[in-house]
Amino acid sequence: MSSYLPLGLPGHIFVKWGKCYCTAIGTHIASQIMGNKEQHGESVSRIHRLRGQRYTVQKLDTVARQVAYQRLRYETFIKRLGWDIPATEEREYDHYDLEDTTTIHVFGVFGKKYRTEHLLGGVRVFALNSWDASMTMSEFKDAGMIPATVARELARRDHSDLIEITRLCVKRGSRLPPPATPPNAETEGFDLAIARDLTYAAVYKVAEETGRYLALGLAHTSYLQLMKRGNFSFEILHAQDLHDKRAGYALALINLPATVRAIRASGGRDRANRMLALCQDKRAFEAIHHIS
């Protein structure tokens, strides 16, 4: 897929193994990836280890990684999509970057080759403790992007049954050239479709840990089309100017278990496995049908 992959919108946010050669921040995530080796025949690590490349999902708990994520957001949302939002030194930021709370989870997907690490994608996930903590119900609504009728319908829902996806972005293109390699070494770039799937693996991880199986997000027109082609299972709660590829958007509610079932049913076994890679009980997650 030769485009940036943002989920969210202007001034706010857009609404994704054999022996494992993964180095993750926190042994918890690393052990979860290692645990996939019995359940998933082919794996990201196994497919790419002969090329000297590996992919990891990590919490962005260092300044360097947070800066890399903000730069990717700047590249995606400001340079690519033309949003008029705060930025400094080619870094896009908002007040959520400064909040110290257990309800905001920020992850990055990294490609590593020959000890050099590259950020391929990132996502911020809110496990809402109230509708006041939602970007949709605060920034987006205040900016006039969410009609009052839609906001009232959302407010009637129990916020505790969903997560909110924000600032989801993946590097543009189908492959990212790797860093300089030794002579005669394999030089094929990182597969950004895998990076996208592992970005969603972070979303699914938060969903499983919190018991929330619906994901709310504001999606740009182009990304909405990508979701449709990618067999996502979702409901559009509000749409605005979808004919406009630059300014159009939709508020979508994604059914996460139904999405991986649909992807698997369409022949995307490896893709579905990657999206579930960080879940403790993958079969149980995928089997969930009744979501209130």
UniProtKB/TrEMBL annotation:
Reaction catalysis annotation: a fatty acyl-[ACP] + S-adenosyl-L-methionine = an N-acyl-L-homoserine lactone + S-methyl-5'-thioadenosine + holo-[ACP] + H(+)
Gene3D superfamilies: 3.40.630.30
Molecular function GO labels: N-acyl homoserine lactone synthase activity
UniProt xrefs under InterPro entries: Acyl_CoA_acyltransferase, Autoind_synth_CS, Autoind_synthase
EC nos: 2.3.1.184
Pfam assignment, any one: Autoind_synth
Protein name (Swiss-Prot/TrEMBL): acyl-homoserine-lactone synthase
Organism: Ktedonobacter racemifer DSM 44963
